[in-house]
Specification:
With 220 residues, this protein is of the alpha+beta class. The chain is built from seven helices and four strands. It is globular, with a radius of gyration of 23 Å. It starts with a helix and ends with a helix. The relative contact order is 0.17.
Length: 220
């Protein structure tokens, strides 16, 4: 009986942990959408944080405002499609000229990714191209250097990142090293890694069979 009680306790604990993780990664389920006051506050802080040319900043903030006001509370997948400059550009607070663009961006990523974790963000994919675009489009659609796919649990998390007090110190490293396509997407379908999914399924079966056998061995 004590063993069965322990198993039931573990089962309840696992269910609660899973539910908490789901709520953390999908806060929109609880109706957590950005309010107009939040949008105004975040964008005012972003205006202060982002050290980019005024015209570019104004356009960026206009687009961010429209995107934030359309918040649906759902997770966001932010595509980062990057092309390194031949050498780092002079930029206030940016990397030293001795750094390569790849080194400057690597420094940015090493500091930015840990900022994502407390807010539930993650990087499902980070990688380099294997070659050129296999379709003969204009050169502007080719010769990419790096691609990241960043998952934010909601739009609020992205705004929290760019308004983090530590962010202004690292953003110049990114802007000085590359040009970037930064586009938000909604996930319509996500395929799990087959190896991990198979391992998880087999573990569930193994534990289920063990539980079933333990139940059968109980005295009547």
């Amino acid at each position: 009986m004590p063993k069965l009680t322990l198993l039931r306790g573990l089962a309840v604990a696992f269910v609660l942990i899973t539910a908490a993780m789901f709520a953390w990664q999908n806060p929109g389920v609880l109706g957590s959408r950005l309010t107009p006051a939040e949008v105004d506050r975040y964008l005012a802080q972003a205006d202060h944080n982002l050290a980019i040319p005024p015209a570019e900043k104004a356009e960026m903030l206009t687009r961010l405002r429209a995107w934030a006001f359309a918040d649906d509370g759902k997770p966001v997948y932010m595509l980062n499609l990057m092309r390194f400059y031949p050498q780092v550009r002079a930029f206030p607070g940016g990397p030293p000229a001795s750094m390569t663009p790849a080194q400057a961006n690597a420094y940015y990523e090493s500091k930015a990714v840990p900022m994502l974790l407390p807010m539930g963000g993650s990087a499902p994919f980070m990688g380099r191209p294997q070659g050129q675009n296999v379709l003969p489009y204009d050169a502007r659609g080719d010769h990419w250097s790096r691609m990241l796919l960043i998952r934010y649990p909601n739009r609020r998390a992205f705004l929290q990142l760019i308004t983090d007090p530590r962010y202004p110190a690292i953003m110049p490293y990114k802007l000085a090293s590359l040009e970037i396509v930064l586009a938000p997407f909604t996930a319509e379908m996500m395929m799990p890694d087959y190896t991990q999914a198979t391992a998880a399924l087999l573990l569930i079966i193994f534990l289920g069979v063990g539980w079933w056998r333990a139940e059968r061995r109980k005295p009547d």
